[in-house]
Amino acid sequence: MNIDYLNKIQKVDAPPYLFTRIQQKIKDSQSVVLPKKIVWAIGLLCSVILCVNISVVLYAAESINTTVTMSQIIELMPNNSFYR
Predict the structure, then answer these.
(1) Rounded Cα gap, residues 36 and 83, in angstroms
(2) Using CA atoms, how far apart are residues 31 and 26, in angstroms rounded to an integer?
(3) What angle do CA 61, 63, 65 make, to 5 degrees?
(4) Percent residues over pLDDT 70 in the chain
(5) In terms of residue numbers, what domain contains 69?
(6) How many structural domains does the chain have?
């Protein structure tokens, strides 16, 4: 690689007032605002899903025999026989 190519690069100047135009576009852009009904509906839905998940986990934890290990629950092999 020849370093002379880097010496031939010319500096490019930005157009005048570019930064102020960018700032003005940011100020002019409108932020997206969701209606309160949609926000409440999403919050309620997330709460219901969370409650259902918690109840399923608690019910499953009560019904599992205490001698069952976690590897048996998620059906993992309890030994490393697949490495032989």
Answers:
(1) 56
(2) 10
(3) 90
(4) 70
(5) 38-75
(6) 1
